[in-house]
Amino acid sequence: MNLSSMASGARDAFYTLSVSSGETRNLVLKYFSDLLQENRDGIFAANREDLAEAEASGLAAPLLSRLKLDREKLDHVCDGLRSLASLKDPVGETVFCHEITEGLKLYRVTCPIGVIGIIFESRPDALIQISSLAIKSGNAALLKGGREALRTNQELIRCVRGALRRAGLPEDTAQLLETREDVASMLKEDDKIDLIIPRGSNAFVRYIMDNSRIPVLGHADGICHVYVDAAADPATALKVALDSKVQNLAVCNAEETLLVHEKIAASFLPEFAGLLEKHGVEIRGDEAVRAIIPCVPATEEDWRTEYLDAILSIRIVPSLEAAIEHINRYGSHHTDCIVTTDENSAREFFSRVDSAGVYLNVSTRFADGFVYGLGAEVGIATGKLHARGPMGLDGLTTYKYKLIGHGQTMAEIKSGALKYTHRVLDEKCPL
Amino acid sequence: MNLSSMASGARDAFYTLSVSSGETRNLVLKYFSDLLQENRDGIFAANREDLAEAEASGLAAPLLSRLKLDREKLDHVCDGLRSLASLKDPVGETVFCHEITEGLKLYRVTCPIGVIGIIFESRPDALIQISSLAIKSGNAALLKGGREALRTNQELIRCVRGALRRAGLPEDTAQLLETREDVASMLKEDDKIDLIIPRGSNAFVRYIMDNSRIPVLGHADGICHVYVDAAADPATALKVALDSKVQNLAVCNAEETLLVHEKIAASFLPEFAGLLEKHGVEIRGDEAVRAIIPCVPATEEDWRTEYLDAILSIRIVPSLEAAIEHINRYGSHHTDCIVTTDENSAREFFSRVDSAGVYLNVSTRFADGFVYGLGAEVGIATGKLHARGPMGLDGLTTYKYKLIGHGQTMAEIKSGALKYTHRVLDEKCPL
Hints:
Oligomer: homodimer
Distance between the termini of chain A: 37 Å
Shape of chain A: globular
CATH class of the largest domain in chain A: Alpha Beta
CATH topology of the largest domain in chain A: Aldehyde Dehydrogenase, Chain A, domain 1
Largest sheet of chain A: 7 strands, parallel
């Protein structure tokens, strides 16, 4: 099967899906959960093969643990499928209704985007989450998981396709890509694919953007900052700056750079450095930091680096203004936090920091689709268009304008036979 | 002034604008209108020079008439500025509020996109409309108008910059690009520019997409269809199919292809062809059409062509299904209409036609930002992400997640010391 026919199949599936009801799409999620449980022995066997090969090839322990799919994880994703089915249908919702002229009503109505290509890492539960979000929102998905999880993903895709068939929807709504060449071919199908969501490094997202005309919503680097303001409450600053760094080192919403106002640095940094030391975190500081605590000198490169590791860069800034400038210049527009008791500083930070998430007095680790109440996420968008931050169901929809009349013409408007009424109505679209 | 410094200036202006109030931005629109009136003699003189040169170089009469800026047009755009000022502030609106855990509230709040590059045709009123929409929504704009309108645009940009200065906002919020080289340079500034809106042909929009990493919302070809269903009311079909074609030939929402169900073709086409003949419209038909009315044979190329002229291609289709397939295959996803009295056919057409606008029994000429009640438009987006169809103020905004806590950490969630509450609240963001 070549990629071009796969994409055509997905496009046809999307057109069929676009007339399906929310109930039918929820039924797919239920059947998907059923089939995962019915076929779990086969799934676990495939996963054990993937794990054995990955171990033999020397994959690091944290990655092996992400690759592993056991009974507990499977039960957890099946719970997720049921909770997703219980969420409101994201498509077919009338956003507004506007009467243009007597008897001519315009409706803006949400609808699926179409065919979405999603490239994700070696976590088999990602396939389940992503394909179910796509189906719930009426989209067809071409899925490319990590090479290490191939056998597991082949089992999982069989379950989702079985669930689609059982609900009377086209199997080609969800298809698995197996090679890097498939990805390269997918990028050329700009007449059949509406959106690519790559999850990975900045360099990977750039590669995708540079090699395709298909719109890209990138889940790229997370260079998140905590800024401890002159007016910060010291206890809150310690809690938030520490949790943002150490609660999980290897995630995109972890803090990579701490900015500290010069007025509070001498009192804050020594105690904070003690906490970091306990957690085995290396500090890289600018000159002003090194005058207060012993640490590795930070270079310009440090401000641009997503460590995903037990390293924190620290810089002392003379003002709120300087902190905001640093974040807008070096950050990745993901999630940035100010710790302060001064409402004006918080307001300025919230308005001027150009990121998907701006936080006051709370750990950056909260940047997550489930935490935000979006059900789950297909990625965290660091661009500014369409969807921003954790991208859940509504990020997978767009809208259509539906206009319902009875023969109105522009000639009648221009001649004055019909007049604009421009009234906002509270009505649902009947079609 | 090179483009890179212009873009930096725009970025700085955006950061200043992002803390401005809606009142201040409305004041700019008022001052802009005042300055246009105060300086109208100079503006008209510059426009006369542009017109003289364009006439000497042999510009076609319809284009000359679009280029002309007279007292009536100026009064009209000044009215537009006042009505834009009266619209609600599109930024700072809380879309939803969600309590994550006790005392930790998440707000999704609308905000400007940032720096937008807009390339538009030789209609000087376009500069006024576009720059005012950008300012109202808190964005900075780099504007490139048609070469023929350069002297007029130089006068107009002076007025908008004067208005910004008078309101205490940075002049560099609105800047004029003067050459094609400027456009080429602009496309490279992907670290400073957030969005490019090109208005022009498909080929032009493709050129922009292929030469920039900046996201593009293209206003490209409008290949709009009217489909006359088997169950169409004949009088409505004649009115709608005619108005969509002839009310204005040279616009993107004009009908380029008519699809007719085979059951109604023999009765509908002869009368319709008579109307088209009266309006001097050439018909290009497929074989089945030519068996009913005399006309030029249509080629495969015709189905893909935006004529913007007194030409209409006509095809007879065996079913609604075939009509939908034709539209999704050859159309430009702009605006497509079904004429029918059958609600099921209408519903199927509305669900499956993959266009920004789907119409029932009404002329495609209604696809317009002002008509839709959006105030005005910066373009008509034919892509599917972010904004679709006529793109007004809300298409120029994005959103930020604002999270306000008092020291909550993910460690407390993981340990069970804090529990998710996941409650939807009806609250505005205080910051």
